[in-house]
Q: What sequence folds into this?
């Protein structure tokens, strides 16, 4: 590649300015060196100059391949203009970055950069090590590629110097996705650095809300978020994938949607498919002209509180408290603070809760409700007769979401996430009432129902009636009647 300016002249530009000026030509030249012909969607991604790129993709859709190619082009740029680069690959574990490393070393072997640039002649690497998956690649000019891990909430595996580029691999599987981006983002802000990040992955077995949110924001268009863009890759985009593979017949419907098409599908399918996160998780502002009520679930060890305001036939959840401990005195203080600061001292009409400490495994004391009742005389606990059945709760939530009657403030993360992540209670091929019990799902959904049915008992079918044993046909008929 012939330089359009000499090295002396290039020194007046920052790395970022030089990269933006020559990146398209460099990428094209690298594709030529590597004998790569980009398919259409791949080319759109690789040539996109947006600093934050999110790729949600099915398996074998070339997301890791594309990222490795982009890093090869960055190394080419660094050699061409004698610029040091700091790059990091981060996965849910160190080992999960192997897909990018494998492709990058294939490129470096196919078209060795040390034959073009002296700064890459001295190389140190531990790629291929079986004793440590914390792989690295360093060159004599100071350029380094390191590996980070997001397997602990302290994210110490990604903290360090500033980076020109970060590649977050399998972000959909990250156990601590928000902590990861919170830790890595400040490291990609040094003035003069290239400062770009790719966040890539296949959706996990269950919704990764952070991944979904980043993807959705990237779909909003350059007018709203000019620095973030997202892409979806699937098997039809990649011409090198066998479209008629017999292996596809082994996939379940959810598996096909997730692993082939790159769709967000929780394990077992969504229990509330009508819940549209983007439309129903929107800012909610407390209206002092309207009454409000509260739902409390004491949980097994940490209470969850939802503040709900009826608005005509709609219900608006405007505040959520996720307690840090089991002490009910602290819970009362938290509620009092929200009542004073957010609600201007206006008292809730009712506080519905469960009967704390009823299960042997509960760490919260059975006396918790009496403490809450003393502070808020309008508090009342909910009996199992009022709940009737988990099916009725599920149908109520489905009805409210289908009719677009429930809205949740984005700050109420536990409740919003529970609506997205809740899955049918399936065991051994049998669908049982309600949702599958998983950490983070039960408490906010129960807190909401305790508030709703104490505010308006008629919301739940068969109030104070025993739950009959229904055949599958009767269950479907009951659901049809409920949904009208």
A:
């Amino acid at each position: 590649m012939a330089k359009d300016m000499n090295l002396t002249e290039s020194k007046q530009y920052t790395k970022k300015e030089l990269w933006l000026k020559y990146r398209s030509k460099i990428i094209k030249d690298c594709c030529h060196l590597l004998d790569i012909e980009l398919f259409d969607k791949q080319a759109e991604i690789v040539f996109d100059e947006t600093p934050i790129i999110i790729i949600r993709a099915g398996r074998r859709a070339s997301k890791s391949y594309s990222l490795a190619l982009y890093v090869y082009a960055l190394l080419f740029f660094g050699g061409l203009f004698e610029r040091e680069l700091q790059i990091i690959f981060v996965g849910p574990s160190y080992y999960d970055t192997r897909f990018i490393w494998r492709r990058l070393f294939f490129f470096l072997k196919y078209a060795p950069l040390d034959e073009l640039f002296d700064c890459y002649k001295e190389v140190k690497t531990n790629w291929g090590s079986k004793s440590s998956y914390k792989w690295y690649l360093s060159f004599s000019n100071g350029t380094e590629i390191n590996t980070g891990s997001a397997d602990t909430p302290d994210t110490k595996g990604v903290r360090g110097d500033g980076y020109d580029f970060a590649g977050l691999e399998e972000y959909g599987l990250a156990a601590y996705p928000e902590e990861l981006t919170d830790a890595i983002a400040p490291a990609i802000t040094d003035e003069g650095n290239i400062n770009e990040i790719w966040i890539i992955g296949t959706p996990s077995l269950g919704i990764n809300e952070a991944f979904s949110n980043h993807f959705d924001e990237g779909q909003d268009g350059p007018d709203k978020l000019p620095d973030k863009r997202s892409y979806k890759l699937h098997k039809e985009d990649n011409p090198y994938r066998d479209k008629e593979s017999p292996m596809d017949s082994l996939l379940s419907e959810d598996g096909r949607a997730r692993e082939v098409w790159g769709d967000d599908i929780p394990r077992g399918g969504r229990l509330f498919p009508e819940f549209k996160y983007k439309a129903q998780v929107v800012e909610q502002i407390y209206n002092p002209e309207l009454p409000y009520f509260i739902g409390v679930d004491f949980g097994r060890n940490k209470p969850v509180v939802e503040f709900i305001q009826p608005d005509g036939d709609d219900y608006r959840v405007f505040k959520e408290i996720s307690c840090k401990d089991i002490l009910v005195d602290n819970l009362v203080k938290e509620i009092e603070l929200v009542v004073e600061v957010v609600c201007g001292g206006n008292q809730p009409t009712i506080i519905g809760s469960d009967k704390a400490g009823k299960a042997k495994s509960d760490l919260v004391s059975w006396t918790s409700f009496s403490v809450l009742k003393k502070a808020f005389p309008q508090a009342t606990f909910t009996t199992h007769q009022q709940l009737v059945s988990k099916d009725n709760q599920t149908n109520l939530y489905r009805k409210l979401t289908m009719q677009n009657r429930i809205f949740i403030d984005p700050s109420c993360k536990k409740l919003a996430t529970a609506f997205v992540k809740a899955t049918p209670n399936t065991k051994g091929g049998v669908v049982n009432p309600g949702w599958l019990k998983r950490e983070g799902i039960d408490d906010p959904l129960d807190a909401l129902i305790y508030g709703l049915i104490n505010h308006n008992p008629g919301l739940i079918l068969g109030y104070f009636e025993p739950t009959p044993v229904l055949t599958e046909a009767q269950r479907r008929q009951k659901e049809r009647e409920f949904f009208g």
